[in-house]
């Protein structure tokens, strides 16, 4: 249903979404530290040690109930940037993973697997290809989106974590505004003809309506008994299915993982597209 909007590197865009690229500034902490207080980046740290420090700090903060809500998007960005660093510099992966405690290593290995699947699915960005006509906007607050996902689950029966994971992969939870090259539209990237089947008269650009329609599509394709098969109907790629499943399972294990994902940013090729970006 949802076709590729553009090449997307590192955990973004398998179904209709965005890209990979330039590393965002990362707050750091010493490996092993439980502190969620950012310290200045230290240029003398070896790159693998730096990535490990960022991952430990981010995972600790994201899963700590005492972390203020206002800091969660920032820690999500630190997490995303550190995962990207290891994907773009695979020579660092083994060393960085070896520096991580078990709980952080498990999460990082899952994120790396999803990122590699989406990178392979989308392929490299063609530098001669015209830029997509995107506007990058601020998403609805995490609590508002969570209510949309859970309302759809209550009404349709599809677990909210899979709806959130699709939203993350497709448009970075609504940050991307713009149609795909195949004509997919809205926060959950529906082809209009598919929307006619599952939209039930709603607005394809509405976040709540699109999430509910995605739940109906998944249920119609067997999500209550075969989620993998239903996800494949959303995007005919086993890589897409695996990546969405990784993110959903992380949220199933701990709902706070969602709060980190809410902070993940949009990339196109090597270019970070901050909120407020308007591409021609």
Description of the structure:
This protein is mainly alpha-helical and 280 residues long. Helices cover 49% and strands 4% of the residues. It has 11 helices and 4 strands; from the N terminus they run ααααβααβαααααββ. The protein has helices at 47-62, 72-88, 93-98, 102-122, 142-156, 160-171, 192-198, 207-220, 227-234, 238-253, 256-261, and strands at 135-136, 176-177, 266-268, 271-273. It has a two-stranded antiparallel sheet with strand order 1-2. Strands 3-4 form a two-stranded antiparallel ribbon. A hairpin with a 2-residue loop joins strand 3 and strand 4. Helix 5 (142-156) crosses helix 6 (160-171) and helix 6 crosses helix 10 (238-253). The two termini are 26 Å apart.
Gist of the model:
With 280 residues, the chain is mainly alpha-helical.
Q: What is Rg? A: 18 Å
Helical residue percent band: 40-55%
List SSEs in N-to-C order. HHHHEHHEHHHHHEE
- For the secondary structure, the number of strands is 4
Structural class: mainly alpha
Q: Please tally the helical runs, counting DSSP H or I stretches of 4 or more residues.
A: 11
How do the helices and strands line up, and which of them pair or pack?
Blueprint lengths: L46 H16 L9 H17 L4 H6 L3 H21 L12 E2 L5 H15 L3 H12 L4 E2 L14 H7 L8 H14 L6 H8 L3 H16 L2 H6 L4 E3 L2 E3 L7
Antiparallel strand pairs: 1-2, 3-4
